[in-house]
Amino acid sequence: MPKKGMYVSLLIWLFVCSGFIFVKNKELLFDYPEYWPKPKYTFSKNTLTEEGFQLGRRLFYDPILSKDNTISCASCHLQATGFTHVDHDLSHGIKGRIGKRNSLVLINLAWNTSFMWDGSINHIETQALAPIHDKNEMDETLENVIKKLEAASGYKKLFYKAFKDSTITGQRTLLAITQFVGMLNSYNSKYDKYIRNEVGGEFTGQEKNGLSIFKKHCASCHKEPLFTNNQYKNTGLKIDETLNDFGRMKVTNLASDSLKFKVPTLRNIQFTKPYMHDGRFETLQEVIAHYTSDVQKSTTLATELEDKIILTHKEKIDLLVFLRTLTDKEFLFNKRFSFPKSLLTTKNF
Q1: In Å, what is the CA distance from 332 to each residue of 41, 92, 118, 228?
Q2: Measured distance CA(56)–CA(200) in Å, rounded
Q3: DSSP character for 104?
Q4: How far apart are CA 21 and CA 5, in angstroms?
Q5: Mean pLDDT within 38-53
Q6: pTM (2 decimals)?
Q7: Which of 297, 301, 280, 296 is nearest to 234 (CA)?
Q8: DSSP string of 196-242?
Q9: What is the structure's pLDDT at 17?
Q10: Are 93 and 71 in contact (CB under 8 A)?
Q11: Longest dimension (CA), the chain
């Protein structure tokens, strides 16, 4: 008679051949420094796994999300520049279409309470829908994205690995993208090592002076350690008469929100030019010049800017030197966040 071990081996063989063998996914730790506040998004209903992260990574870099398969998330969010673009002031989409705003960086998103320059998106899991649906960006529908993913090589297998089910849905697509972008956390700059008293974080006298200047004039909006307060402020910019962008007022319909835009994080600011919601400034020197000499008064101007900021030439230089300590090269060149090589050898159609 056949031995018991033979039945066990036969059963395992049948499960493997049928595609029903289950291997537990590798869960990932959502790590951040102990001196940081707790994140707003905790992945409690979107369990972080290596398989989900890698699926999201691939989707992020795949132009299949756009109508003509030419624009990916990474087209406007380049890793080496803090996951934003630097080659033009306004976002560009399919067929050379030009958007209305400069792309925001994708850094430490789990601490955000709202998204986009005007706060029109209120949840990280739905944020990706905005560029997918925008006529000037990807100009696609989620329904059609799903059809293309179903026809593309390799995606059913990747969805199976991530969700233990090869069914491709819009919700799963968005959850996977969220796992990837939600892990784009930057906390290993020289500034962070200085705060943690680690090797490599020794500040020069100039950097310390720059930090003091920053705390006095900038930190109320760009609050440490995230370097944003997640609020919306009118920073006194002159209205671009071509764009006529009044910011958050378009979302809330409140006159009190006129000309208010999201306070962006300053992490990796050295590499995330151009600056402001419309990318009008190419250099940080121009940004500082605006705040010290060109703030436009209005009824919605941020109270923090009502009094003129006065800085000497040396103080401006010291402030710039400090801002460069926010650069996190470990983040900017982390291969886990880079273009997946599998896309180079896979044809979607």
Answers
A1: 22, 22, 26, 19
A2: 33
A3: P
A4: 18
A5: 96
A6: 0.90
A7: 301
A8: TT-TT-PPPHHHHHHHHHHHHHTTTTS-TTTT--S-EEB--PPP-TT
A9: 45
A10: yes
A11: 93
